[in-house]
Design brief:
The protein is mostly beta strands. The protein folds into four domains: 61 residues, no CATH class; 120 residues, Sandwich (Lipoxygenase-1), CATH 2.60.60; 116 residues, PLAT/LH2 domain (Lipoxygenase-1, Sandwich), CATH 2.60.60.20; 118 residues, Sandwich (Lipoxygenase-1), CATH 2.60.60. It is 1% helix and 49% strand. It has one helix and 42 strands. Strands 15, 16, 17, 19 and 22 form a five-stranded antiparallel beta sheet that branches. The protein has a five-stranded antiparallel beta sheet with strand order 28-23-30-31-33, with no helix packed on it. Strands 35, 36, 37, 39 and 42 form a five-stranded antiparallel beta sheet that branches. 26% of the residues are buried. The N terminus is likely disordered. This is Lipoxygenase homology domain-containing protein 1. InterPro entries: Inner_ear_hair_cell_LOXHD, PLAT/LH2_dom, PLAT/LH2_dom_sf. Pfam families: PLAT (PF01477). It comes from Thamnophis sirtalis.
């Protein structure tokens, strides 16, 4: 195995020797190139002679990097795929009282908030007492400490688990707090809506995901019955901040596994918010589109916060006004009036905050601002009274989007409410939750082409996971009724409904190696986004077979460059 830390691996890699005698003949099975700073290992399969008197007489070979098997090495931090902290070839790691150092190159994910770390529980010594993990950003020199002080073990410790989540401590400040999630699951009021299957879900928010949550212990003895509301409690779990989506599924077990889900409400006790995820769909193999997994975006209405800053260059100490009217104009709707009752002192240099309940008004294009005496009373003062507004910031409290209006204008006190000034939006800051919640379900066409060599087809169960810039699809079964799929030289087409994934980055295709002839030669995978019409090709040309090649039954495929 070759290790490189400073040289970028290019599209090709060559290996060979300069020997000319029979003693220098070399039968090369495979070789690996490790790039620690990238966190990957590339494995190239050769299985041929490098010799002048054997095979084809060549003493060197050239390999394309696209033909290599790529394995990640590292660990998982929020927003990142799992990394494996590989064992060292020349020394032992994770020994008692020992500090182990790893260098990884990962995308900038801002200040760390939490880490999820796990072991696979294998080996002669699977139990591990983890004290602490320290992560240092070599660019910013920021240091994050993750303290656990417990076992990752199925037989020792308090938790009896192989996986844990640890909050980051930066500059003596805990970056994430614990909360209790109260999850209410409403089964629809239609015939056969209930399920006997086991249901699980994952929640996504600003601070990453919750991991898999099994919905086992409900307030009802018989869960997920028709028109029933089941309540589940998950205490002492890291708060995810504003929630954006959930993925919910069942294992299709039991006498009546089909399930019609109406909605999910999730309450975060830390921030005292409830997030709704509307479904109104079947999770059943014999209903709707045959899927038993759904991704749901958050469907909360918005609460608006209006923050006004009065200029400091006013000659008056303050302006007393009994009504401030703010009209919001969107790109698709008419003006909407929001009034603030009561008397408010607009003090020089002060920032005033007002909150309103409102329906969703979409993106705000402009606002109209004015003020008048209480109840429309006539003005007593002969002199004009002005209110100098420096800036107005409108915040959607549920989504966190902020709209900035640079006013720097004097607004006169008027007897009529219809007198106002118009200010256009100067800047918009879209929150993470808003971006995620704006995702809509998209129908993806998945085409799988099986190779044409002898015995290329498979009888095993095939699954696919699609990864994009907006997340992943989760593991999806590729299945059709009354069809013999994945036969030699065949092209099979499937349709999956998934929340918009953005630009596709990779796919993972795998089978469970079941039945008589599980070995499978995958030629390629093509995925088309029906909303945009964009097709992404993922070449493969490799066996998924325990008895051939590298004996893997899964492949991670990347788009054709």
């Amino acid at each position: 195995m070759t290790s490189t830390s400073s040289v970028a691996l290019r599209r090709r890699s060559s290996i060979g020797h300069d020997g000319a005698t029979p003693e220098s003949s070399w039968l090369l099975d495979e070789f690996s190139v490790t790039v620690p700073t990238k966190g990957v290992i590339y494995t190239f399969v050769c299985k041929c002679w490098l010799a002048q008197d054997r095979g084809d007489g060549l003493t060197s070979r050239v390999f394309n990097i696209l033909d290599a098997d790529c394995i990640n090495i590292g660990l998982k931090m929020t927003s990142q795929a799992p990394r494996i902290l590989s064992k060292c070839l020349f020394s032992s790691r994770f020994e008692i009282g020992q500090k182990d150092t790893f260098i990884m190159e990962i995308p900038d994910i801002a200040s760390l908030k939490k880490m999820r770390i796990r072991t696979d529980g294998t080996g002669c010594r699977p139990d591990w007492f983890l004290e602490q993990v320290t992560v240092k950003n070599l660019s910013t020199q920021e240091v994050a400490t993750f303290t656990y002080n417990d076992w990752l073990s199925k037989q020792w410790g308090d938790n009896l688990t192989l996986e844990c989540e640890i909050a980051a401590m930066i500059n003596d400040e805990l970056m994430i707090e614990d909360t209790t999630y109260v999850i209410q699951v409403k089964t629809s009021n239609i015939g056969g809506a209930g399920t006997d299957a086991n249901v699980s879900m994952i929640i996504w928010g600003e601070n990453g995901d919750s991991g898999t949550l099994a919905l086992k212990e409900s307030n009802r003895s018989n869960k997920f019955e028709k028109n029933q509301l089941d309540v589940f409690y998950f205490p002492d779990i890291f708060s995810l901040g504003d929630l954006c989506k959930v993925r919910i599924w069942h294992d299709n077990k039991g006498i009546a596994p089909g399930w019609h889900l109406e909605y999910i409400d999730i309450e975060d006790s830390l921030v005292d918010k409830i997030f709704r995820f509307q479904c109104d769909r079947w999770l059943a193999k014999d209903e709707d589109d045959g899927q038993i997994i759904r991704e749901l975006a958050c469907a909360n209405n918005d609460i608006l916060e209006l923050k006004e800053r009065t200029s400091t260059n006013l000659s008056m100490l303050c302006v007393r006004a009994s009504l401030i009217s703010t009209l919001l104009k969107t790109k698709q709707r008419d003006f909407k009036c929001i009034a603030v009752p009561g008397i408010h002192e607009l003090v020089l240099g002060a920032s005033d905050v007002f909150q309103f309940s409102s329906k969703n008004v979409d993106d705000i294009a402009a606002i109209c601002v004015g003020h008048c005496p209480k109840d429309g009373k006539k003005l007593k003062a002969k002199l004009d009274i002005y209110w100098h507004v420096q800036e107005i910031v409108v915040t959607e409290m549920e989504l966190g989007n902020k709209y900035f209006f640079k006013c720097n204008a004097k607004i006169p006190l008027r007897a009529k409410r219809g007198d106002y000034k118009v200010f256009e939006c100067a800047k918009v800051i879209e929150s993470f939750a808003s971006k995620a919640r704006s995702l809509v379900p998209v129908r993806y066409e998945v085409i799988v082409v099986t190779g044409s060599q002898k015995a290329s087809g498979t009888d095993a169960n095939v699954h696919i996971t699609i990864f994009g810039t907006n997340g992943d699809s989760g593991k999806r079964r590729l299945k059709q009724k009354f069809r013999n799929l994945f036969e030699r030289g065949s092209t099979d087409r499937f349709y999956l409904e998934i929340l918009e994934l953005g630009e596709l980055k990779k796919v993972r295709i795998e089978h469970d190696s079941s039945r008589l002839s599980p070995g499978w030669l995958v030629e390629r995978v093509e995925i088309t986004n029906s909303a945009t019409g964009i097709t992404t090709n993922f070449p493969c040309g490799k066996w998924l077979d325990k008895n051939k090649g590298d004996q893997l039954t899964w492949r991670e495929l990347f788009p054709r460059s």
